[in-house]
Amino acid sequence: MSHAWTLVSRPKGSPSMENFALRDIPDQPLKEGEIRVSNSFFSVDPYMRPRMDEGDSYIAPFELNEPMTGAAVGRVVETRSERYKVGDRVSHFLGWRDSATLKAENALPLPVGDLKDEYFLDALGVIGMTAYFGLFDVAEARPGDVVFVSAAAGAVGSLVVQIAKLRGMTVIGSAGGAEKCDFVRSLGADHVIDYKSPGPFEDKLRAAAPDGLDVYFDNVGGEQLDAAMGVAKRNARFAICGMIGMYNSDAPIGFSNLFTVISKRLQIRGFINGDFMARRDECMAQMGYWVSKGLIESRYTIFDGLDNGPQAFFSLFSGGNTGKALVRLGA
Amino acid sequence: MSHAWTLVSRPKGSPSMENFALRDIPDQPLKEGEIRVSNSFFSVDPYMRPRMDEGDSYIAPFELNEPMTGAAVGRVVETRSERYKVGDRVSHFLGWRDSATLKAENALPLPVGDLKDEYFLDALGVIGMTAYFGLFDVAEARPGDVVFVSAAAGAVGSLVVQIAKLRGMTVIGSAGGAEKCDFVRSLGADHVIDYKSPGPFEDKLRAAAPDGLDVYFDNVGGEQLDAAMGVAKRNARFAICGMIGMYNSDAPIGFSNLFTVISKRLQIRGFINGDFMARRDECMAQMGYWVSKGLIESRYTIFDGLDNGPQAFFSLFSGGNTGKALVRLGA
């Protein structure tokens, strides 16, 4: 028997426990080409919030009363595929459950070695790809650039800070509260802004970047996006990765600096991690090198047990986490 | 004696006559390399409004109590340059005055022929470059694309409609009122939306583009920009050329569809016409061909006499004009 979280109703605004239900799923015999994976960790990520809405056909919504999906890591426990033997470590996309049955070609083999499972849901998984391609491709960041990254203590943001420093950029990170700001500073950020401190955010950003920004890596939207337009240099590039401050609200967002898109010739591009899946190997080669040399620090907020899946997800929006939020299974 | 409009105070919100004063400027003897030009027309354009604000160093503000500048066409009446003889037709950037004294290298020679002066402040001037490079370069529009252009009865918009059709695109134009909408339709637009008609603009845009937009050429900002984000296809490109609806206001602009920047991977780029000056010849070759073959219709709203300069400028914001607004001198 497997167990999986399902979405039973679509949240209005902030999600709560009543939107979720844990279901038993009887294990069917494997078909030819399938494997069964016992998950060790699954990922909870902000982009899952818009997937809980009906809607927009560009991010497939979660189906009601079906197991939810997302990145996961585990070990093969049963196999009818020549690709995998029992005990192999794989990543796949059937998270939010303790055990997954899938076609072998929908799993990715993970290297044998001493890298912990957690890395493959972080720097060496889609989070790493989001940081890497968002910074270097979408925002076209280059050595010497002044880069601002919001939610810099978060999973993606904390990687962006570090890989931007590794590539010779000046980095400004924002986070909420002294503890998170200390963490961002420890990652090598040149300037850290506590967005919870009093005063207009734009003034603080301008003080940190008196000559302006070349790049903004946006994880939050709203006031920080508006401020970044105000402080941007001419021809600055914005990678819009997430707008976590806006996911639980329908209210229109007010912008005062939008006109600078013209006067500064800003380039603003949205992206999601899956856009670069075909170039995964390139990213893994670089990130794998940095991780293996100890040049990237990862921090995790771990929730133990499948039962805590929704709480792990809610924690993304409370501002309480540092680094990557994961759910650990079978510990 | 020359006469020139000067800005004597910076407008708060909508500009009015009290912000302007007409000044006499004694003609100085020409220096070596200079020419004197009697202007036949000068241009009034929306981008001049932000130049009236103090401000942002990316669009040089007009200096208080100095003659304002802008595109103009005229004939050389006095010369100390080997480049020009008396009677030559030139364009230059010392508009808002009846006569201009400038270095010969700051003028552009215009072809001899039967093309009226007005064309060189429109399809064969910076307006043409704005439409051409904004559509084909900034928005990367290609044959087959579904293109939405706002203020489609205006100077830039009416050119965008026509050159997009000439390149095999499906074109949706917006304008205010039945007369302007008829004009846009006469230019070849496939669908015309009267933004003054009742109901949410986004619903009308979706009805006109049920499969979504590939390109949005934005001249107005605000509600139509928000609607275009809502109706855009995945990977749609937005060229942000102007935000005429927003120039006279400091109020923040509210957006409801901003999240689609991520989910649809939108690319939003601002630009101003000067960005492509180095590629002027390419644009003039194509636009000149279309104009010479009668494939581009231009319409003008002409204000007679230097005295009417400010009124011509105010007319840009009242929604009263069709086509390019010009001030005619010495008629």
Question: What does this protein look like?
Answer:
2 copies of one chain form a homodimer. Chain A is of the alpha/beta class and 331 residues long. Chain A folds into 2 domains: 2-122 and 299-328, Medium-chain alcohol dehydrogenases, catalytic domain (Quinone Oxidoreductase, Chain A, domain 1); 126-274, Rossmann fold (3-Layer(aba) Sandwich), CATH 3.40.50. Chain A has 9 helices and 16 strands. Chain A has helices at 48-51, 126-138, 155-166, 178-186, 201-208, 222-231, 260-263, 280-292, 309-315; strands at residues 2-7, 20-25, 34-43, 72-79, 89-92, 99-103, 108-109, 146-149, 170-175, 191-194, 213-218, 232-240, 253-255, 267-270, 300-304, 324-328. In chain A, the strands form 3 sheets. In chain A, strands 3, 4, 5, 6, 7, 15 and 16 form a 7-stranded mixed beta sheet that branches. Chain A has a 6-stranded parallel beta sheet with strand order 10-9-8-11-12-14, with helices on both faces. Chains A and B meet through strand 13, helix 7 and strand 14 of A and strand 13, helix 7 and strand 14 of B. Strand 14 of chain A pairs antiparallel with strand 14 (267-270) of chain B, so a sheet runs across the interface.
